[in-house]
Each structure stands twice: as structure tokens, then as C-alpha cells.
């Protein structure tokens, strides 16, 4: 059963998964191998995976400003990073920007979670890029591969968009 905002406080250090609502059995994948210190442009790889293995597990952290950060369960202190610089200010098309990993939590690693009517969430940049949302396109991701696949980037003004909605579940 998907998690709700009311469930977040009880999670503690239990890992969660981030499942696309649009692409069946396609999860957000974050490979933070080699990300061991802060780097301005981030590093590692964020893409999609069919099914949920170790790189598809995250720890949800509440920040003092009301935002949330997603830490890799496989790479401690490595967080989901979203950079919306240069993103076209249109609500359709291929999106843009950069989604990757960062060591530690700075402004690019903070997200507002917008609850949707279907129990899913859209992830908006909390401080660095207002009205910029996490976008996942899992077209062709139909089997698990070592490198993952698909596209994870940013979309402008896409709260509740098809490629911008995710179910949060306790990892099995």
C-alpha cells in the first residue's frame, strides 16, 4: 500500500521505493558509486529500473524547512539531486535539467512532496528551482539491467503530470 504524508514520521530508517505511476513496475534508480565528497555539479547516475533492487531503495529524511530529501540506501550520505538550470519554461516536451546524486544535502537535494488525489506524489524543487518537478520516462524499460535505462530529468510546472507522479512504498 502506498505511503501517505501521515506515514512519513513513522518510517524511521526503513527504506522506501519510488515507483512511477505511468510506467508499470518502473522505479527510480540511483547509483551513487564514486560519490564520496560534495561536488558542485553532483555525480553518479539517476535513471530507471524495472523492478526494485538495492539501487532503487531510499531513506526519506524530513528537513527543518518542511522539505524532504532522498538518501540512497546503498550509498550512505548520497542524496537525490535536481538541477533545473536551463530548463525550458514549458509544461510539455522532453523536459531538461540534470538529475543525479550529491554527497550531503544542500538546496538542490530538497523537495516539496505534493500529494495527488490517487495517493501518489509529485516532487518539486523546494528551494533552488521553484515550480520545477522530477520527471521519469521509463519507455522501453521492460526488464532489469545492470545499468538501468530510461530518462530522469526535470519538467516545468508539472505538478500531477503523468511522468511526474510517484508512489512511495516501504521497500520489501
UniProtKB/TrEMBL annotation:
It comes from Micromonospora carbonacea. This is Uncharacterized protein. GO terms for molecular function: alpha-L-arabinofuranosidase activity. One of its GO terms (biological process) is L-arabinose metabolic process.
Amino acid at each position: 500500500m502506498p505511503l501517505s504524508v501521515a506515514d512519513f514520521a513513522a518510517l524511521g530508517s526503513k527504506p522506501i521505493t519510488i515507483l512511477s505511476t505511468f510506467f508499470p513496475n518502473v522505479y527510480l534508480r540511483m547509483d551513487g558509486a564514486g560519490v564520496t565528497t560534495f561536488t558542485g555539479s553532483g555525480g553518479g547516475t539517476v535513471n530507471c529500473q524495472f523492478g526494485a533492487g538495492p539501487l532503487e531503495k531510499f531513506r526519506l529524511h524530513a528537513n527543518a524547512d518542511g522539505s524532504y530529501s532522498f538518501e540512497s540506501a546503498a550509498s550512505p550520505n548520497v542524496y537525490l539531486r535536481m538541477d533545473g538550470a536551463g530548463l525550458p519554461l514549458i509544461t510539455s516536451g522532453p523536459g531538461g535539467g540534470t538529475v543525479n546524486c550529491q554527497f550531503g544535502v544542500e538546496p538542490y537535494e530538497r523537495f516539496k512532496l505534493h500529494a495527488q488525489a490517487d495517493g501518489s506524489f509529485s516532487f518539486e524543487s523546494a528551494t533552488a528551482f521553484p515550480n520545477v518537478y522530477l520527471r521519469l520516462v521509463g519507455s522501453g524499460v521492460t526488464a532489469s539491467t545492470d545499468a538501468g535505462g530510461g530518462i530522469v530529468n526535470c519538467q516545468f510546472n508539472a505538478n500531477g503530470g503523468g511522468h511526474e507522479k510517484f508512489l512511495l512504498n516501504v521497500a520489501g
